[in-house]
Amino acid sequence: MDREALRMLCSPQFWRMAVLWALSLLHSYLLVFHCGRADAPRRRRPRPAEGRCPICVVTGATSGLGRAAAAALAREGYHVVLAGRSTQLLYETVQEIQRQQPDAHLKEFQVDLASFKSIKKFGSSLKQWVHEKNVEPSIQLLVNNAGILAKSHRITEDGLDEMIQTNYIGPFMLTNILLPLLKNSSVPSRVVNLTSFTHRCGLDVCEDALRGMKFGRCSIGESYPLASTYEYTKLCMLMFSYELHRQLHMSSGVSVI
Ligand SMILES: NC(=O)c1ccc[n+]([C@@H]2O[C@H](COP(=O)([O-])OP(=O)(O)OC[C@H]3O[C@@H](n4cnc5c(N)ncnc54)[C@H](OP(=O)(O)O)[C@@H]3O)[C@@H](O)[C@H]2O)c1
């Protein structure tokens, strides 16, 4: 175990996280049980015109939930755009999915969500690829999956806390760049934002936090508030999802969940 991980295990933030997150998870399960959401019928999404694969973009597609989602969406007949930080991991993931599903339609793009420059470059390359591919340039699904739980305070090239930029500001920017393509879809399109039950712990929303003054900054010697920062990014992502859905679902065919 590296030193950073050991420091994290010994920090009060870790133990606060362990207790509060377990309680929040329990609360979320009780809510699901109470509302009976688990039994909701599965609806199939409409498809674009005959002969065309719907296109989905999955960020953080090289491991965990993103990788599983990319494989499952390929199985559903989507042309899956896998977006990830490492070109080597992207290559390996594409090879692996292709090995299991030889007829899968896959395309990989490198992007670092903790860099504005990288997101803009990815946005332009993706738009160009979609335009070259389709008469009606559009995408049907964007899965903002990439996310981290940083063990320590790191500043990105844009001068922001790495966890805040990766988990919230980066996906916010990417979604806005890709909105024209989502709106251009002839069938209802969708943005899926990966949040977390831990947003329930992030009740400390004050003006300082919203201006980025509270989290993601700590002076030398102070331990990094990793749990609060993570919870805060997920709360921001949830509020962003609600607001974007409110703005879009009446005026366009885009829904946000
Ligand atoms: N797992 C859970 O129990 C759980 C619960 C609630 C919410 N979530 C959320 O679900 C999402 C996926 O979780 P997971 O457990 O599947 O995580 P994971 O296995 O750690 O995968 C995260 C993915 O995000 C990518 N990523 C990290 N930083 C990035 C960056 N700056 N730019 C581009 N990609 C980046 C990683 O790429 P690299 O491989 O290059 O690092 C990786 O592919 C996250 O948003 C997480 O917060 C997970």
Q: How are the secondary structure elements laid out?
A:
Layout: H1 3-10, H2 12-35, E1 55-59, H3 64-75, E2 79-84, H4 87-100, E3 105-110, H5 116-133, E4 141-144, H6 162-183, E5 189-193, H7 207-210, H8 226-248, E6 254-256
Parallel strand pairs: 1-2, 1-4, 2-3, 4-5, 5-6
Bound molecules: NADP nicotinamide-adenine-dinucleotide phosphate (NAP).
NADP nicotinamide-adenine-dinucleotide phosphate binds next to helix 3.
Question: How would you describe this structure to a colleague?
Answer:
This protein has 257 residues and is α/β, with parallel strands linked by helices. It has a single domain (52-256), classed as Rossmann fold (3-Layer(aba) Sandwich). It has 8 helices and 6 strands; from the N terminus they run ααβαβαβαβαβααβ. A 6-stranded parallel β-sheet has the order 3-2-1-4-5-6, sandwiched between helices. Helix 5 packs parallel to helix 6 (162-183) and helix 6 (162-183) packs parallel to helix 8 (226-248). The longest helix has 24 residues, at 12-35. Keywords: Oxidoreductase.
Distance between the termini: 37 Å
Task: Kindly estimate the percentage of residues that lie in beta strands according to DSSP.
Answer: 5-15%
Fourth CATH level, the homologous superfamily: NAD(P)-binding Rossmann-like Domain
Number of domains: 1
Helix content: 40-55%
Number of helices: 8
CATH class: Alpha Beta
Ligands (ions, cofactors included): NADP nicotinamide-adenine-dinucleotide phosphate
Strand order of the largest sheet: 3-2-1-4-5-6
Overall number of strands: 6
Q: Give the uncertain stretches in residue-range form.
A: none
